[in-house]
Specification:
Methyltransferase, Methionine Synthase (B12-binding Domains), Chain A, domain 1, Multidrug-efflux Transporter Regulator, Chain: A, Domain 2
Length: about 350
């Protein structure tokens, strides 16, 4: 029997397992937060499961998860967690009192086709289950992230919520999980970059509010890349790749992703980061004798054709066997400023493929 068939037999309405609710890990994945965050909200603020089952593992019902959804929505707007928890618990108490006031005084017999019409009108409608279904993924994303993410992976919404809450632990766990699950290139292209773009749009449209969120998210992405990348590969003659931002360019994160993706493939990389002066770039190329040089430009004002042409014309080696590097112009700053004869990859996957091809030659 396949996994999907087993899931279909073991789960009831709203995806809640028939065996008694969701585990803490499953709840965390649904909410897009770290499991430690769920446990902290339980231990510190009393937002744990209402019902307790035997054994070590706690089980969360749809009602419990709905409470946590509300907690996510409130903290995403900047409300401190303690205050948000008081609000959630207060709303739950009011809801319980409302149900008690409107409930019938005594048990009501179920209706049947033979029950008189007057009795049927007084009997409450029966529900298949006393547990309401879990909110849909679309409803959760609207409540939690506060960003216009559009049609993206669920991981984007979880990362956005953690960034808006400035939750460092959750953000690190979610970023690392995305890289492990999808691989670095897919995680960057389909999860991390769309989230960064959404945060940037939020910043631009809100009068420079959320700047701290963008910086916070970028910093943690950079950290996740460094932790996830393997150790630097040993130099191989003629196989080194030099990566640097052009002078005046300080947006290093996309280049950090490229460096990590190349290291993941065992390619020797020398990363020089932001705004490398021309003299320093030339010195680095002469000292390393690279097979390829990647020059990143975020803005058209920093992309320099003469610089790219100068690096591409550099030579080294013994007479009769002199070599030149293949220079890649990378980043949106080179749009409309194509340098004849130099590759201009349009995305991370293409840049990795071109550099792998150059080194293999």
């Amino acid at each position: 029997m396949g996994t999907h068939e087993r899931d279909g037999e073991d789960r009831g309405r709203g995806g809640v397992p028939l065996g008694g609710g969701l585990t803490t890990g499953e709840v965390a994945r649904r909410l897009g937060v770290a499991p430690t965050t769920v446990r902290t909200w339980d231990r510190r603020y009393g937002l744990g499961p209402d019902a307790h089952t035997g054994g070590r593992h706690r089980r969360w019902t749809a009602t419990d998860v709905a409470r946590l959804e509300r907690m996510c929505a409130l903290t995403a707007t900047g409300i401190p967690p303690a205050e948000a928890a008081r609000t959630v618990l207060g709303e739950a108490t009011l809801g319980a009192e409302s149900v008690a006031l409107t409930a019938p005084a005594g048990p009501t017999a179920p209706t049947s086709p033979d029950t008189p019409p007057q009795a049927q009108a007084q009997a409450p409608a029966r529900r298949p289950s006393d547990t309401p279904p879990l909110p849909s993924a679309r409803a959760r994303s609207r409540a939690g992230s506060g960003l216009r993410l559009g049609d993206v992976r669920q991981e984007c919404k979880g990362i956005a919520r953690a960034a808006l809450r400035l939750d460092a632990v959750a953000l690190d766990e979610l970023l690392e999980a995305a890289i492990v699950e999808h691989g670095l290139v897919a995680a960057w292209t389909e999860v991390i970059m769309p989230t960064l773009q959404a945060v940037g749009r939020k910043w631009e449209s809100s009068g420079e509010r959320y700047v701290e969120v963008e910086h916070f998210l970028s910093w943690h992405v950079s950290g996740a890349l460094r932790r996830g990348a393997p150790p630097s590969a040993a130099d191989r003659p003629g196989a080194t790749i030099v990566l640097a931002c052009v002078p005046g360019e300080n947006h290093t994160l996309p280049l950090e992703v490229l460096a990590a993706a190349l290291a993941e493939r065992g390619l020797p990389v020398r990363m020089f980061g932001g705004a490398l002066p021309v003299e320093s770039l030339v010195t680095a190329v002469r000292r390393t004798g690279p097979a390829a040089v990647g020059l990143w430009a975020q803005s058209r004002t920093t992309a320099s054709r003469p610089l790219a042409q100068h690096v591409a014309a550099m030579e080294w080696g013994v007479r009769g066997a002199r070599r030149k590097p293949v220079v890649l112009t990378i980043g949106p700053g080179w749009s409309g400023r194509t340098v004849t004869g130099l590759p201009r990859p349009t995305g991370l996957a293409e840049a990795v493929a071109v550099l792998e091809s150059v080194v293999s030659r």
